Request: fold
Amino acid sequence: MYSAIEVIQQRRTLRRFTTANISDDDIQRLLTAAMAAPSLMGRKPWHFVVIRDAEVKKRIAEAFRVHPQLAEAPVWIAFLADVSASPAWRMDLSAAVMNTLLQATAMGLGATWIGTVDSKWTPGQVEACRTLYIPEGWELFAFVAVGKPAEQRPPHVLDPYVFSTRVHEGKWGNRRQVPSPQYHSEGGKQ
Ligand SMILES: Cc1cc2nc3c(=O)[nH]c(=O)nc-3n(C[C@H](O)[C@H](O)[C@H](O)COP(=O)(O)O)c2cc1C
Reply:
């Protein structure tokens, strides 16, 4: 059982995957985490498309010009928004993506957030929406590519300089004391 800070600091963007598949049970857990995210007024404006088809993943990866090895992830999950359901759909969808990434980390899976720009009219968006049969009125917000990782990256640690320049105490410009080193890499403990 990992603590929250362990999962948060160990989460890294992983783009290389083994050929091992991801079970439907694993997908259920990832989607359950996604749908546990907070959303404005609890409107949950999200829909998901689970993609396993190699040809579809390849086509979208090429359209989005992402790292080619991301197409090798056994599963991509498309995060879609019903834009009429909430004016805060971008924030709601971000929270759902983040929950998914953290759940993947807790399960020992590797994952990458594949972002989209705000306009749905980029060539990548158009191609992906056509490929996935996304109806009018829905925004393709992001994909998460997920699989068993074939690479490791070190956990996040707190950067004392960043902390000292970004955190203000009570009012802008009042520096907050940098936490003692024991807090810098709590989540990196094995
Ligand atoms: C909104 C957003 C969009 C992203 N889009 C992509 C992407 O299209 N391709 C990719 O390889 N990584 C993508 N990333 C992952 C970032 O490159 C990664 O989070 C960043 O390099 C920091 O690394 P870390 O996630 O390991 O902390 C995206 C991340 C965010 C938050």
